[in-house]
Amino acid sequence: MSNDSTDEAAAASGDFIRTMIREDRRQGRFGGRVVTRFPPEPNGYLHIGHTKAICLNFAVAKEMGGTCHLRFDDTNPSAEEVEYVDSIKNDIRWLGFDWGENLFFASDYFGQLYDYAVDLIRRGKAYVCDLSSEEHRQHRGTLTEPGIDSPYRGRSVEENLDLFERMKQGEFETGSRVVRAKIDMASPILTMRDPILFRIQKGVHHHRTGAEWHIYPMYDFAHCLSDSIENITHSLCTLEFLDHRPLYDWILDELELESHPQQIEFARLNLSHTVMSKRILRGMVERGLVSGWDDPRMPTLSGMRRRGYPPQAIRSFCEGVGVTKKNNTIQLARLEFNVREHWNRHAPRKMAVLDPLPVVITNYPDGQVEEIEAINNPEDPSAGTRSVPFSRVLFIERGDFREDPPRKFFRLAPGREVRLRYAYFITCDEVVKNADGEIVELRCRYDPATHGGDAPDGRKVKATLHWVSAEQSVRADVRVYEPLFSAEDPLDVPEGEDFTASLNPDSIRVLSDCRVEPGLVGASVGDTVQFERQGYFTVDPDSTPDALVFNRAVTLRDTWAKVAKKG
């Protein structure tokens, strides 16, 4: 189900869920079997918040010699699409997990779920209610006040069965009737106050069953029964379902089902500067606030994949966060650290100049092109070396030169000598400006004796600059990303405003006419490299051989934390 060493670290961890499951196995509960499931609703793309549940369910099953099911909770057809089903399967596989033959849909069980509701009605444990949604809220009560019985609670079994069958046949309009469990309107647990089990969605097309059904089960009803039907042993849920566990158990107990899984709750993954609501994320896509679900600024797995986040780093992040019972917020910098750590080991190095400033080496032969040997990855000697063309006219970063350098600025300045990475020492002799006083060119001389970047006489320089040959380099667009939201909690906004008040206006900058070394011409979509001294960059799907496009996955250091601290 997974092919990464992070599973081994997880297996050795002592989190409370693994401890509970190991104890169940020791006692022979469920016959020693372990079957988990990941049950996404296909109403949007998976995001980073889902990865904790995915990694936990699949990893625990593998560690315990069990299986993990992928089951789509497709019980709300008005919000679900085949596109979302396909994207979810693709994202889970990309993360490194495989459900094998265990792919299921709640819609596989619509007939059984209907029969289970009929059974509850016959047992006097469910009824058809005609209250409107507003009346239902008014009858529900509060945390300190009991609810009020529905006037339809006393309907006979025969009448309820007749109405439920007619609901199924599409005789009634959406919202006119629901089926509710008959439990206790005075229960201190709000979810036990006669919760809704089935509702009408007449004429809504379902992505798998078409127009066959006019009624659909609520999640709480479909969830526990789907678990039971599939013989799930441990139903791992986030903490918001803690108050739903009594209902989970009540339904299974009242139906006297032999298969009764154990629901266990854990803290969900919350990430700073990030929104985890699929409803809000979908709204951002629909309002054009982002370019799509795979916008590299989005917390979706498709967005992170496009940006250049590797699945290994995401799994390592989830493993490092751990499994607890207390909700907290993890800093975005922690995820970026995992991304940076992975690519530092695996990404080949390249040179790219994002804000080019021409440099003419006045004493270098005109027309000569020299091949300079460069290291591909200092963290991986087996990666070898590559050749980079060096010529009379080069580009360096505009920010690597100051005409009037401040204190502690050790890069290039008039009369100062610096090292060009892998190449030579150069000294700036002249600054050329245009009519507006803007610097348009530097004229420098090189020391041929410093080939390879070291001086035979032992003299030292305080800065090493990256560069590319002006003639041989290739033009590229580079997209530089910052967090989509400037606030640590994007939903903590003044009254009367929404999450858009937290949007970061500088979350993307597109740099045109960047220059990269020619070896990147053959780069494929998804390839990730380190631009030396810049960060880690990934080839975007918009890229073509004639027009390269790179996304910055992450910087070499955590610069955002410093910016945020300054205010």
Describe the structure.
- The protein has 4 domains: 6-106 and 220-335, Rossmann fold (3-Layer(aba) Sandwich); 111-218, Glutamyl-tRNA Synthetase, domain 3, CATH 3.90.800.10; 352-469, Ribosomal Protein L25, Chain P, CATH 2.40.240; 475-566, Beta Barrel (Ribosomal Protein L25, Chain P).
- It is α/β, with parallel strands linked by helices and 567 residues long.
- Helix content is 27%, strand content 23%.
- A 7-stranded mixed β-sheet has the order 12-25-26-27-23-24-13. The protein has a 7-stranded mixed β-sheet with strand order 21-18-19-20-14-17-22, with no helix packed on it.
- The protein has 14 helices and 27 strands.
- Helix 3 (48-63) links the parallel strand 1 (35-38) and strand 2 (67-72).
Radius of gyration: 30 Å
Find the CATH topology of the largest domain. Answer: Rossmann fold
Strand order of the largest sheet: 12-25-26-27-23-24-13
Q: Please give the number of β-strands.
A: 27
CATH class of the largest domain: Alpha Beta
Annotation field: number of helices = 14
Task: Specify the CATH homologous superfamily of the largest domain.
Answer: HUPs
Features:
Rossmann fold; seven-stranded mixed beta sheet; disordered N terminus; Ribosomal Protein L25, Chain P; Glutamyl-tRNA Synthetase, domain 3; single chain; alpha/beta; 567 residues
